[in-house]
Amino acid sequence: MRNYKKIQTEKNTVTKIVCNKCKKEITIKNGIPEEEMLTVEKRWGYFSHKDGELHRFDICEECYDTWIASFKIPVYGEQELEC
Ligand SMILES: [Zn+2]
What we know:
Structural class: mainly beta
Strand order of the largest sheet: 1-2-3-4
Largest sheet: 4 strands, antiparallel
Radius of gyration: 17 Å
Helix content: 10-25%
Bound molecules: zinc ion
Mean pLDDT: 88
C-alpha cells in the first residue's frame, strides 16, 4: 500500500510505504525509502480466475523473511535436475 500527497506540480509523490502484511510504515526521505521493501505488481490474465485484475502490494523485509521461510524451495537456492 502506498500513500500519496499532491505537490504543486500535480505529480503524485510517494510519501510512505506501508507493509500490506503487518502495516509497518516505511518513510520516504528525499525520494529514498528508509528501509528496503518488496513490491509485487501483477496483472492477472485470461487463464486465471482474476482476469484483468491488477494486484499490487508492498512487503517489509521482516515479513518477506517470514514468507520465504514457508517456501518449499529456498529463493536463493538452485536445484539440480536429475536426468
Ligand atoms: Zn511487514
